[in-house]
User: What shape does this take?
Amino acid sequence: MSKILDGLKSLTTITANAVKGVDQTVADEVKKQRLDLCNGCENLNMLRQCKKCLCFVDQKTKFKQEECPINKWSKEL
Assistant: This one.
């Protein structure tokens, strides 16, 4: 249940920031670096979903406030 609540909290933050016009996306190079780490991770399933946090990594890696649940990459604020 905690994973679902964490995901909802993140989605709420992203939505609120979008309404406010806050730039939330990382540079393309940062997203690529994050995705490279996720692509090599044993916790990535065939749907490109993280088994630890249940997020879809192709989306999660592009947001500044997101971070890897096992600390492979961190927030960029």
Summary: The chain has one domain: 2-60. Residues 2-20 form the longest helix (19 residues). Residues 2-60 form one domain. The CA atoms of residues 67 and 74 lie 4 Å apart.
